[in-house]
Amino acid sequence: MTRHVAVLMGGWSAEREVSLVTGAACANALRDGGYRVSEVDVGRDIAEVLRALDPDVVFNGLHGPWGEDGRVQGLLEIMDLPYTHSGVRASANAMHKPTAKGIFAEAGIPIVESVVLDADAAQGASPLPLPYVIKPVDEGSTVGVHIVRAGDNRDVLAGWTHGREVMFERFVDGLELSVAVMGDRALGVIEIEPLNGFYDYEAKYTDGKARHHMPARLDGEVYEAAMGHALRAHRALDCRGVSRADFRFDPAAGGVDGLFILEVNTQPGMTPLSLVPEMAGHEGMDFQELVSWMVEDAGCPR
């Protein structure tokens, strides 16, 4: 019997447009794989929509708050619907960067020094030596992220719309790295070379704004360390299915001492420019096989 998959996409976060692209790509691949697919642009009536569709499994293609932070996962568990990616606790802990950093540190994974301040108190503040990064505590896709260097205008928090808390994080000069974890194994390390010097939202989702090097141009020790850290982070958060760990690596620090985890994305993008499909492809798994694996791996944790 053909399985019926409801693909959740869109929603109302700042990453809505990316989620629509992810969802459409996954829905098309699943149809090609023989599944019956319903595409759902998620609204506040999602429970009623899912009840009417009555799918066998839900592919969660949402990005950002609500769809990625444990809340929609909780709803799906209440409805007893198997779903892809991580469960409630893992999703919530990974999405809240300060919580995730604490979990990484306990697991022995190197993290970057950071300070979290109330958004109002953070106006004009410089709690760390320059350069530093200002970022929301619970957004993805580099939404709201700013690098502040010597001589820059530091009033980047004027009109801040990304929550009550702000994270200030030491800027690690060097390479942008990412590692996909699929089930119980790391797929490899990819190096991202942004052409404008910063791997921002535009660079992530606009063709020609960044070069990808797969495998990353690293010596073997650092490459293996990045894969090991990503797998430990996936397990420490109790992730399920596919996740993606992002790192910064400063070659000047000397070997693995320059490698730091930034965050784990429990629902990484699946657009034509996304990193996880590229890493899976390097391992011989095409896009259709990847999303089909994710559907077959779906569950409803108790």
Account of the 3D structure:
Helices cover 30% and strands 24% of the residues. It has nine helices and twelve strands. Strand 1, helix 1 and strand 2 form a beta-alpha-beta unit. The radius of gyration is 19 Å and the shape is globular. The two termini are 26 Å apart. The model has no long low-confidence stretch (mean pLDDT 90).
Name the descriptors.
3 domains, four-stranded antiparallel beta sheet, 9 helices, alpha+beta, five-stranded antiparallel beta sheet, globular, Dna Ligase, domain 1, 302 residues, Rossmann fold, D-amino Acid Aminotransferase, Chain A, domain 1, 12 strands
Helix and strand arrangement:
Elements: E1 4-9, H1 16-32, E2 36-41, H2 46-53, E3 57-60, H3 71-78, H4 88-95, H5 97-106, E4 114-118, E5 132-136, E6 146-148, E7 165-170, E8 175-182, E9 185-194, H6 201-205, E10 210-213, H7 220-236, E11 242-249, E12 259-265, H8 275-282, H9 287-297
Parallel strand pairs: 1-2, 1-3
Antiparallel strand pairs: 4-7, 5-6, 5-7, 8-9, 8-11, 9-10, 11-12
Helix pairs in contact: 1-9
